[in-house]
């Protein structure tokens, strides 16, 4: 594997859980990274805000705006940032809600409403960095990540995006920390989104185009485990996961990494997953594999879910096989039995 990398450049993404529960630690981590590296920060919306905005786009219930505003004011206050700087975004949000008919279609309207989550978090983060003495600038991905008009799950135009990456290069050359909105893109001036959980994808697109040394995905778990550690208490942290395993696991529902996020970095640069509140890095995603299976799950419909096993083609388990691939297999289980089945299957494989 040949990495063509700018040796001091790192892209670090913080997910919604980190923005909500570990904002101070995320800031401190960036300050530490900045001592030795050029750092690009990618942020998600505060956990729960994208869902709230989705509801708001439907209901247009003004009390939701109040709730979102309060959450961000508290975060701004705690971070020593004047919450008045958020006001223009709330004025814009109200204006967008009153003018749905001006959008070409419902999807374009919804994506514009969803954009406020990430746009609010980057303003607070960039200002908090400035208060800590780091020169920083907000980058709205509308102006960088060029997409098609498939609102809600837009496809990225990589050559169009590559042309716009200079905007971020310029900030890095000025010694600033760009703080980029994850999840968002742009199509002819309209706002698009890359699919739920798409901030990981933003980070790997930027890491690849900026020829970064690594992309760090910081979350509320230390990395990729043998199964969701919130459901399977015996799950073990995997120090090495191959690109292919990460791709298969995320496609089969593993939430720790977005399915699309592997493609831009595959064979080019590593993705490292870590836990924000302890600064612990746990999993290195590259060509190297620990050759340990990963259990995944996702809903199939209202009544059923599928459990995937990445890294094995055959498993003796008491459930119907749902699908099979080159190096994975999945089983169909009732949704109410999902947790027990995951634990049982984990025991079968790792006993
Ligand atoms: N195999 C796995 N390894 C690690 N985390 C997993 C796994 N499967 C599911 N998860 C879940 O992924 C979550 C992290 O993803 P997500 O909630 O999208 O984080 P963030 O808010 O940082 O974007 C963890 O809290 C964990 O419950
Ligand atoms: N805020 C978006 C994008 C995202 O990536 O979120 P997270 O990193 O919290 O999964 C969402 O909720 O889908």
UniProtKB/TrEMBL annotation:
<keyword id="KW-0808">Transferase</keyword>
<dbReference type="GO" id="GO:0005524">
    <property type="term" value="F:ATP binding"/>
</dbReference>
<dbReference type="InterPro" id="IPR001048">
    <property type="entry name" value="Asp/Glu/Uridylate_kinase"/>
</dbReference>
<dbReference type="GO" id="GO:0004072">
    <property type="term" value="F:aspartate kinase activity"/>
</dbReference>
<comment type="similarity">
    <text>Belongs to the aspartokinase family.</text>
</comment>
<keyword id="KW-0418">Kinase</keyword>
<dbReference type="GO" id="GO:0009089">
    <property type="term" value="P:lysine biosynthetic process via diaminopimelate"/>
</dbReference>
<comment type="pathway">
    <text>Amino-acid biosynthesis; L-methionine biosynthesis via de novo pathway; L-homoserine from L-aspartate: step 1/3.</text>
</comment>
<keyword id="KW-0547">Nucleotide-binding</keyword>
<keyword id="KW-0067">ATP-binding</keyword>
<dbReference type="InterPro" id="IPR011819">
    <property type="entry name" value="AspKin_pair"/>
</dbReference>
<dbReference type="Pfam" id="PF00696">
    <property type="entry name" value="AA_kinase"/>
</dbReference>
<dbReference type="InterPro" id="IPR036393">
    <property type="entry name" value="AceGlu_kinase-like_sf"/>
</dbReference>
<dbReference type="InterPro" id="IPR001341">
    <property type="entry name" value="Asp_kinase"/>
</dbReference>
<keyword id="KW-0028">Amino-acid biosynthesis</keyword>
<dbReference type="GO" id="GO:0009090">
    <property type="term" value="P:homoserine biosynthetic process"/>
</dbReference>
<protein>
    <recommendedName>
        <fullName>Aspartokinase</fullName>
        <ecNumber>2.7.2.4</ecNumber>
    </recommendedName>
</protein>
<dbReference type="InterPro" id="IPR018042">
    <property type="entry name" value="Aspartate_kinase_CS"/>
</dbReference>
<feature type="domain" description="Aspartate/glutamate/uridylate kinase">
    <location>
        <begin position="8"/>
        <end position="272"/>
    </location>
</feature>
<dbReference type="GO" id="GO:0005829">
    <property type="term" value="C:cytosol"/>
</dbReference>
<comment type="pathway">
    <text>Amino-acid biosynthesis; L-threonine biosynthesis; L-threonine from L-aspartate: step 1/5.</text>
</comment>
